Amino acid sequence: MDYIYEPNRQPCSSDAAGHVRVQVWRALLESAAAENAARMTAMDAATKNATEMIDSLTLYMNKVRQAGITREIIEVVSGAQAL
Q1: Per-residue pLDDT for the chain (83 aa), expressed as one digit of tens each?
Q2: Measured between alpha carbons, how far is 43 from 36 in angstroms, rounded to an integer?
């Protein structure tokens, strides 16, 4: 069975090839966008975790420093009382 192509066969096949080419290009762009979104999400999570760790370590450092100050004050007061 013969088919009749209008206006002719060439533009129809080139249009189909162009459509396929555009679809492949679109898939590549979407893949790149998804990768960038995943990287951005990972970096956001890492930033949040680092901020939480800094806050936790700062609190720990302040507690240790305060404990040292308190210990020194107790030693000075105990030494004064011994006199």
Answers
A1: 677 766 666 666 677 888 899 999 999 999 999 999 999 999 999 999 999 999 999 999 999 999 999 999 999 998 877 76
A2: 10
In 3D space, the residue among 44, 24, 4, 28 whose CA is nearest the CA of residue 16 turns out to be 24
12 and 5 in contact (C-beta within 8 Å)?
A: yes
pTM: 0.59
Write the burial class of residue 44 (CB in 10 Å: 0-12 exposed, 13-18 middle, 19+ buried).
exposed
Kind and range of the H or E element at 59?
A: helix 9-82
Angle in degrees, CA 15, 20, 24, rounded to 5: 145
